Amino acid sequence: MLTELVGLPGGAFRMGTTSFYPEEAPVRTVTVSAFAVERHPVTNAQYARFVEDSGYVTVAERPLDPALYPGVAADDLMPGALIFRPTAGPVDLRDWRQWWEWAPGAWWREPFGPGSAVDDRLDHPVVQISYVDAAAYAQWAGRRLPTEAEWEYAAHGGSSTTYAWGDEVTPNGDLMANTWQGSFPYRNDGARGWVGTSPVGEFPPNAYGLLDMIGNVWEWTSTPYSMQRREAAASSKGCCPPSGGQERSDRGIQLREPDPSVNQTLKGGSHLCAPEYCHRYRPTARSSQSQDSATTHIGFRCVAGV
């Protein structure tokens, strides 16, 4: 079953901030048309239905094309994905390679590599999904991926506060989203007991009734990433990668291979966001990720409408 859509009226809002990271500026007025957004991120169960119906094979399951990765050793072109591994103790937070590692055989059904599984997490957001994998699901569902502007508008829930729920990170001491609790990247005390992803809807909805817009998993948008982002964010409408690359078909799903030279904009933060490293569990926050990337903290949701 597809996720329920929540209709939003559209309108003008103030996008961006100058209070946190430089790539979130400038603040400007952006107008979005009326659209509908899925109430929660796509789950493992929903993605499984898509794969069973379409026969789709995700990027993490395919060998990497040597032409797209010149100079990379053959052993490193095997199917797989990035997984998070906590460190043994405090480390230099400027080097992300200390907690991310390439795992051959990791894909959405075995997100941490062979032997892991999602059978007991069917109501969690699907992860190890690249940009083109998300776009393929959206096409199958008759929907599309949101633009960055649409996503930010929806996450605010009609407010202009720092966080989706207000200006305090934990109002009245309540944890409002699945973010890192403890000391990153070596001690995670769990968000309401969850270390890693949590079931969709475990945390309170925003004012529009949308779940997990903040935390849990980062979400793909259709907007290519740029430090000078605001004009593109307001105008981008497509849900598929830019032209170029090899076309393929999975039972009628037309898509393109990911272009590793193109980065897309991610929104919302994830269970790995911690204030000392990634204070990005806010509607205005954003991150850059190449189209071919699949990791244990990136998922997506779809939208519908113009």
TrEMBL record:
<feature type="region of interest" description="Disordered">
    <location>
        <begin position="232"/>
        <end position="266"/>
    </location>
</feature>
<dbReference type="InterPro" id="IPR005532">
    <property type="entry name" value="SUMF_dom"/>
</dbReference>
<dbReference type="GO" id="GO:0120147">
    <property type="term" value="F:formylglycine-generating oxidase activity"/>
</dbReference>
<dbReference type="InterPro" id="IPR042095">
    <property type="entry name" value="SUMF_sf"/>
</dbReference>
<dbReference type="InterPro" id="IPR051043">
    <property type="entry name" value="Sulfatase_Mod_Factor_Kinase"/>
</dbReference>
<feature type="compositionally biased region" description="Basic and acidic residues">
    <location>
        <begin position="247"/>
        <end position="259"/>
    </location>
</feature>
<dbReference type="InterPro" id="IPR016187">
    <property type="entry name" value="CTDL_fold"/>
</dbReference>
<feature type="domain" description="Sulfatase-modifying factor enzyme-like">
    <location>
        <begin position="2"/>
        <end position="303"/>
    </location>
</feature>
<dbReference type="Pfam" id="PF03781">
    <property type="entry name" value="FGE-sulfatase"/>
</dbReference>
<protein>
    <submittedName>
        <fullName>Formylglycine-generating enzyme family protein</fullName>
    </submittedName>
</protein>
